[in-house]
Amino acid sequence: MNRSIKTLGICLALAAGLSLSMPAFAATTLRIGTVLAPNDPMGQGLEKFKAEVEKATNGEVLVQVFHNSQLGDTTEMIDQARAGANVGTVTDVARLSSFVPSLAIMSAPFLFDTYEQADKFALSEQYLAWGDELKEKSGLVMLASNWYQGPRHALTQKPVSSPADLKGVRMRTIGAPIWIETIRAMGAEPTPIAWGEVYSALQLGSIDAAEAQPTAIKGAKLYEVIKHVTKTGHIQLVTALVVSADAWDQISPENQKIVRDLAVENGRYASQLTIDLGEQALADVAANGVTISEVDLAPFKEAVSGVYGLLELEAEAAVVNEVLGR
């Protein structure tokens, strides 16, 4: 009998040891923040993503969505996630290029002509391989990279018809090399600041200009502090939904697949909203007294053509062209 008790004790100890060494896939909450307003297409897409994930996983994966920079600026949320906090966000992919340099190509100037091209490339084997490197090198997991926020246009206090008109203009942009060098090549002085500070910076004159997509111009009410929107469309803002690897690893493989699939599906939903609402957003901005102008893009394309070589992205550009068959 003593031998039976001893054997039982050993079995229980082994079972306890195994339970400690194996991941426990209990209910997990993903906290996802955005700097944008709840009615922005990205905000609407995240709310739909939340509802569908919770339903499809039977509540085993919960999603909390935080709008309007409640969890901080995008860079701050990325830093929190890398430090192990349960935080995710929708980010321009260029911010992730400090970990995987090739990812910067997604934000390269005048690269994609349509959302469909960006969506195709974001799901290509080549791009997904770069995404897989991200977890190992940064502690971030990219769920999907097809969340389209629209074309970035120049927002200024004076008319713009060529790169020469931007000389000396302090223009807010995203603080990643591809963005900074693109804005510099366009003739302006790139000035990275947090998105939540753009309105007041324009209002106070600490910056002269900004660049943003139509829905964000409207959502942030920038029409109150600018006079001109020039439709340069210099970068198509294709963003990624990323989460902390620590939180992601608490989810079962079966539920991980569900979450990834829904991230792609709702990326397409949010992107279509962006496309559908974009022109109306510009019309609303115009109705508030802002001049919306078309412009000859040829001088701008010529001005930024050297950015690819400067940042050593020619090979990645060739990969994009191969995937898109052009």
UniProtKB/TrEMBL annotation:
Q: Which GO terms describe its cellular component?
A: outer membrane-bounded periplasmic space
Signal peptide position in this chain? 1-26
Query: What biological process terms from GO does the record include?
Result: transmembrane transport
In terms of superkingdom, the source organism counts as Bacteria
Q: Which UniProt keywords apply?
A: Signal
| Residues spanning the membrane | none
NCBIfam families, from UniProt?
A: dctP, TRAP_S1
Report what the protein is called. Answer: TRAP transporter substrate-binding protein DctP
- Species for this entry: Stappia albiluteola
